[in-house]
Specification:
Layout (H helix, E strand, L loop, with lengths): L1 H23 L7 H24 L65 E7 L10 E10 L11 E6 L8 E3 L9 E9 L9 E8 L5 E9 L4
Antiparallel strand pairs: 1-2, 2-5, 3-4, 3-6, 6-7
Helix pairs in contact: 1-2
Length: about 230
């Protein structure tokens, strides 16, 4: 750009000199040859300026393009509505009641945690039999029970509990003696202590096996018609 400006300045100065020469010699009548030379010089200068202007047009400044920054994406969490299922089988979940949140659905069991077929027992034998006893006698009553259910009886999960008759059975609870699989039998032994005075009425103590759900599913008893 500075180089083209220099050329224009030189041509302009040359044109000015020529015009000044013409003014200085205005009072003198120019000769035909001198006039022709000056005219040709002016035309040459003007032609050069025209060519330079055509070859070097003025550049139009282009404003810089500003690339916009990408718009940040805002992540939002979709709230869970009441129609969704709660996580965890058989568990219950509570949703927050504040902040416009919806309460999560609660799973309600439709069947008990165990059925009657899971825990069942069958009486096999007893010793001694239900009969009159002498007052003040102490002995063990032994019941033989069979597991006819679908689940195994485990000593660490089940226990033998007294349901009634504490006047002749002083202890209220015993551990299950062993693991009893379906089809197997177990002997359950309980201490009996009879009163020291004769009785003319029947004395009975009832017992049962309580499972890991806290339910007594197997019941058996021992009756004494009288004490003599």
């Amino acid at each position: 750009m500075r180089k083209n400006f220099g050329k224009f300045a030189g041509l302009f100065m040359l044109l000015s000199v020529l015009l000044a020469g013409c003014g200085m010699a205005a009072d003198q009548e120019p000769t035909p040859d001198a006039v022709a030379i000056k005219t040709q010089a002016v035309e040459t200068a003007m032609a050069e300026m025209t060519v330079q202007a055509a070859l070097n047009p003025s550049a139009t400044p282009v404003p810089p393009t500003i690339t916009p920054l990408p718009t940040a994406t805002r992540f939002t969490q979709t709230p869970i509505t009441g129609g969704g299922s709660s996580s965890g089988s058989g568990g219950s979940s509570s949703g927050g009641s504040g902040g416009g949140g919806s309460k999560l659905a609660t799973s309600t069991p439709t069947v008990p945690p165990w059925s009657s077929d899971d825990y069942r027992c069958e009486f096999v034998d007893q010793y001694p039999y239900d009969q009159a006893q002498k007052a003040g006698t102490e002995y063990d009553i032994v019941w033989t029970m069979r597991n006819i259910g679908d689940r195994t009886w485990y000593p660490n999960l089940m226990e033998v509990v007294r349901l009634s008759g504490k006047e002749i059975a002083p202890y209220a609870m015993y551990p299950l003696p062993k693991t009893v699989k379906p089809g197997e039998t177990v002997e359950i032994r309980v201490d009996i202590q009879l009163p020291f005075s004769p009785q003319d009425y029947m004395l009975t103590t009832e017992w049962g096996i309580k499972n890991d759900q806290g339910t007594v599913f197997c019941r058996f008893y021992h009756s004494i018609p009288r004490l003599y």
